[in-house]
Write a structure and sequence with these properties.
Elements: E1 4-8, H1 9-19, E2 25-28, H2 34-43, E3 47-49, H3 53-67, E4 71-75, H4 79-82, H5 85-94, E5 98-104, H6 120-124, E6 130-133, H7 140-152, E7 158-164, H8 165-169, E8 171-175, H9 197-209, E9 213-217, H10 220-223, H11 227-237, E10 241-243, E11 258-261, H12 269-275, E12 278-282, E13 303-307, E14 321-324, H13 327-342, H14 350-369, H15 378-388, E15 394-397, H16 401-409, E16 419-421, H17 431-441, E17 447-452, H18 453-459, H19 462-468, E18 474-479, H20 484-494, H21 509-515, E19 519-523, H22 529-538, E20 544-549
Parallel strand pairs: 2-3, 2-4, 4-5, 5-7, 6-7, 9-10, 9-12, 10-11, 12-13, 13-14, 15-16, 15-17, 17-18, 18-20, 19-20
Antiparallel strand pairs: 1-8
Length: 575
Amino acid sequence: MSETIEITGGEAIARMYAAHGVGPMFGMGGFQMLPFYDAVRRLGMTHYLINDERCGIFAADAYAKVSGRVGVCDATLGPGATNLVTGLVEALNAGTPLVVQVGDSHRAHSWKNMTQETRQTEVLRPISKELIRVERIERIPELVRRAFAVATQGRPGPVVLDVPEDIAHATHTFSMSEFTAGSFVNQTPSLRIRPDAETLQQAATLLARARRPVMLCGGGVHLSGAAETVQAFAENLDVPVAHTLSGKGAIACTHDLNAGLFGRYSRIANDLIAAADCLFVVGCKLGEIATRRFDLIPADTPLIHLDIVAEELERTTPAQVRLWGDIKATLPELQAQVLSLRHDQRRDDMAIEARKRMLEWRSSVKEKLESHERPVGMARLLHEINAWLPADGYLIADGGFAAHWGGLLFDTKQPGRHFVPDRGFASIGYGIPGAIGAALAAPGKPVLSLTGDGGCNMSLGELETAVRLKLPFTLLVVNNAASGYVKALQHLMYGADTYQSADLNDTNYANVASALGCQGIRVEDPAELRGALDAAALCTDRPTVIDIVVTRDPAKMLPGVDNRAAKVKPGDRIA
């Protein structure tokens, strides 16, 4: 007969988390969460207090993106729960596997003006992959298992566990055998599917006949853990690979077949797309940025679209062949079929053309990449990051400028997710909590995080968290004393001196960081960048914040080193 144990609902949840082997958890407790927190303490689990619930879910999101495991966070009811909204949308849109526990009001007193009570399930349900409300304490093991299964199957996403106060504090006698979990849900994706044979054959025929094919890869490559598979596919078929912001690393950016970012900001990829006679879209939703507001993909070019979510196929762009399946499970079989069909089919030298164009592009922008201008140019900053960060390092990118400049100019040196932007929702404030999650997911690996002064302001309090956790990441603050993206757009669309609500104080973030216990370094000359990064690497028991004074000229703020990215007409939105 199985051993039994009488415990609270909160402890039952903690024991189920332990059964799933969760990593670090992030949260800010309230009365509803006390039994869970007490059990976490007694069971010796790892849980970190954060200063804002939004930053807690951002940290869990980055942890999941870097580790491939399920991120876990929690919040109390009401404002704690609603503070999770932005992070939940990020995770839902980006396909991040999360289990998010929120406390809720005592069911015996609901809707009697309970403190902090709101209709939070109605708020959270549409922005989660699934919301599971725990109505019976004895069902906790079953429902937590379901939460992890839903979070990791198909396209991953966030699952909310809504736990009323009376469920969390009540006790129940459980059988110890109930606290089990299948190992298949410890990593994503937990299940893989492949397209049907007929559709796969159609795709193989198109690719075998193509003389100028191009692959367009999105973040789905990383959700599938398929970057090495994509690179092998491209090498074996000699196909250039372009990527989205989230898809960077689908193939090493330093690889000869890499065509760089496509869409709104592009090096050479958009020209290759225009010249292609077959486009193979892999794990990409073909959204606004990737398609330059839906006008990039030629309507008469045959398009093959591979995605794990059938609903994404043809959402924005018609496909001649729709492949519903997991990337890692599909590409090897597709590759074999293409090779069997190609025989002596002649290909134009598209791969050679891509290599040639990329070399020409690098040569054309060399002056800006190595510029000595003061304030520091963004191209020079990314050039120094590329030179300094090793292949196994990570660059976290906050929303807005950081992600756009990083997506355009940062070069990964091996396949895999080493560029981590919050592009699911593209919100600001991800830089610091994202660095926390990434540093915990990849201990011992260099973690740089790129944020603007505005993004830094939003989550500045989490530097206290990082100091408390003794995390040795490096935060690079792009300090232009402005809400730079807005100011640049105002300049572009309305002309000089038309700025409204776009300027910030010129804050010395090195001094602020030092006051919070970090190592703080201020850089005003590009020649100081390499030394600052070296000094940060020597600081191994706390974060380093490098405050980088960059251009205050709004005409130079928009991403692009060859002046092609900043062309709009009234009514356009460029990012």
